[in-house]
Fold:
Amino acid sequence: MKPYQVLIFIAVVMGLLGVLYKAFPNGQLLHKQPSELSVEVSDNDTIEEFPIFAEAEIEEAETDTLIPQEPKVIIPKIAVDSTTDSRVFLQSFYSSLSESGNKVVRVLHYGDSQIEEDRMSQQIREALQNKYGGSGAGLLPLAQTIPSRTVKQQLRMNDRWIQAAQGPRRYLVYGPKRDQRDDGLYGVMGQVAVMNDSLVKGSETLTAVCTPLDGRKRYTQWRVFADSSVHYTFAGDSVFLSGQGKVYGLSQQSDTGVIVDNIPMRGCLGLVFTKMDREQLVSFYREQNVQLIIMQFGGNAIPSNKNPGTIQGIVKGLRQQVQYLRTCAPQASILFIGPSDMLTQIDGEWTTYPMVPYMDKLLRKMALEENIAYFSLYRWMGGAGSMARWQEIGLAGSDGVHFTRSGARKAGNAVAEWMLEGSEN
Amino acid sequence: MDFLHYIFAFDAEHPLLFTQFYFWGFFALVYALFALIMDRVPDSLGNKKLHLRNVYLMFVSWFFYYKTSGLFLLILLFVTLSDWLIAQRIHKTKNKFWLCLSVAIDLGFLAYFKYAYFFTDAFNDLFGTSYSIVDKIILPVGISFYIFQVISYTADVYRGRIQPVKNILDFGFYVSFFPQLVAGPIVRAEEFIPQLYKPFHLSRRAFGIAVFWIINGLGKKIIMSDFLAVNLIDRVFDNPLLFSGFENLFALFAYSLQVYADFSGYTDIAIGVAMLMGFYLPMNFNSPYKSQSPQEFWRRWHMSLGRWLKTYLYIPLGGNRSIGFGTYFWVTVIALVSASLTGWWLGIMIPYAVLIIAMIIVPKVFKDPDRLKLFYSNLNSFITQVLGGLWHGASWNFIIWGGINGFGMIIEKIWRGMNWHIRFAAMTLLTAGLCVTDFYTNLPVWRLFAVWAGLVWFVTAIRYIYFLCEGAETKFTKALGTAWAILQTFTFITFTRLFFRSSSNLDPATANEVAWATAKNMVNQIGGAWSNAIIPDFLWEYRWVVAMFIAGMVIHWLPTNWKRRYRLWFSAMPIWAIVIAVCIAIAVIYQFVTADVQPFIYFQF
Structure:
């Protein structure tokens, strides 16, 4: 073949592809519904500038990325109070810190997979304990299926190491149906391990070895939250358990100061608290002097819900959870941490899920109406598209959803600083 | 102005990649002028016409490299000039000094840009110092490829295999030819330089095959590599703990396919593009997952690197004929580096001392030439594997990866030399040992090894019984044996991939930590958090990913003859049919670019 013939071939192919592109501008040959993720921002929907308080350099990048090729879903306008510093609702928590005296002040950090492995909670714990005293990693489940960065957990049964899955049966309030209970007895961690008959019949003992990973013993006391039929003793970093019954959690903690518990609930929307036995929650929250409950949810609602109406429904559900927790722990302040920026591919481009800013706004609105504090992770990161920048600098994973270790550290520190700054005002 | 800037200026965010429209626009323009030169400049000018073509393509290649790497183009130019000059001296004087100087300059660049962090880190570990590199070093694109290419040139000139290129512009074209500049194949001078002086020739069939390679490469890269990576593999490797053991294992196997599809897809396109301009690049991948042994795998995988390492490293080390200073030197370096890495000084130095003694004694004691050959070749190929690992990237995980591959090759060779009684006994002992270790430690890594060994033991037992019963080798049993060997090799290679992936956007220290944590977490999940219950859900929810993986493997394993046949069949189609086929193929491939991303699903709680 002569080169000019090859050139003609290239030109014809490119020309035909150009025609195809004209005929199918979005590149989709088959008729595909315009991406369900495409949304339209109402013309009247002005973007409110929320004060973030922690990071002043945030650029508002919310508008452009939402412009769709084929508008389908209209996001309604929401009026949100942009002037209130929501840390005003943490005042009771701040007071409890300075007045704790010989008591512990407990902070429960509930969240989704973004806080697994003690991510973010670790930084909040360090900051609070550095300032107000206290030590220990706080609550741990009996069988740790997801390793923590703070405590290494291993199980031994009859002097033999076993995997978490080989240990007592776990029930999870946020798990699939087969792992749920009818009686709501999950304890405050939303998960319970049941020591069953076989353990008793064989007179087996179960040993949970929980070693702080920084090599120092950071706690002064062990606590075991379990049925009275479960017997336990301690030696060093080990707890020896025998008997039969439910174990709701172990805790490595100090006698005074602040204890921060990391309670991750993988895949959870945050709508599970009302399924947890009220009496158990009330008694733990009161006895352990829980003064702050952090709820970090919302992210799991984003990928599968493309409709503003559904998001509104989920936020309504979260409002009920907030109200429920408040009745369980009337003494405690509540801080809601919204979802981070999250990315998906829309027509080949990595873009922020259109529902993220919407949910963020709805959550802030809900928080202010419920008199609870709100930290917008999304806005603190820098708004739409910020996750892509985080990925570039190694702060976020390639899924466009989860932080890397360093990303989680940065986010955890930001929340901690924001909280502490509020206590000084 | 912005448009001109976009077209001509270097932009690190937008390198020229084969998968982007910009590249094909660039190629069309380049080809237009190329066609003008080839068709309008009279043939009577002879070499001058070829020279004009070569100079033109060289400048185009430099522009291509500038768009991809900015001012690092100067390194490419410097290396071109220095090696061209030194090769002239080598040819005249036959003095080894010039060869050493050339290699030192070339490897110096590579060492600085690719290994400075790594060597500083290793040096600090070894001597307890705390030197650091102040500036962040950015790796020039393709440096590993073109440096190896120029080394092959000066070495070949020194050995008298080729004459030095008289014209520096021709040489510059050889070093920088854009289709293979950034990701290979590594073209040896003796393969490519003669083509500089041959007139353009592209048969009708070669044209069809070139187009086929390009489409094949685009499909591999976008469908088999990018689609699988974005929708499953990346998220599992980024956070293995979010996924069950089965998902981790699936992602690991899919990663094997992804790495192959990504790399071979890129070189397929390079081969096709070069062919359209009348240049023939060597084959770089030959269905590597059809290999029946690790050794065969390395003859089929990244063949141009394998050949390079064999010619310029393995054979100079002594190959299967001898061991010399180089072997002692590298064994010592690898032992020191491994000891410093692991901190197991005694655990590594004792075997090292035993090995050194064996290296001295064995050649004197063993007289059987076959055994000696095996000893030499095992040693030298192990060193080649480890250094080959290091070529891929400057981090510990690549060394571990190379080391495991080296051991795999040695073990397979030893296995092949055993009779069935010994094979069965050895496998039984190994399996029993691993099962006992697993029982007492209950660690996922031992569980994984025990299950793997158990499977191999089971098949070995069947084959052993068949052997004892003096069963005849039929076509069927032979096919079964081949399938088993392929499966085992694929599994082994896939396992080594645990250590192959590292994050390039992190500094080396973090990259090492991340790579090690990823491997550890994946092993923990596969060996400790396997969950049969979620397998059906996973297969259904990720059905497109699973389907693409299966399709990729089936296509990969199609008989070579079939592949050759459909390639020829494609190339023999009328041109209009090829045009239509290409348009359809690109449109289909584009569907994968724009497909919605697979939603994140948690199966394990």
Q: What stands out?
A: Chain B touches chain A through 59 residues (CB under 8 Å). The CA atoms of residues 378 and 410 of chain B lie 6 Å apart.
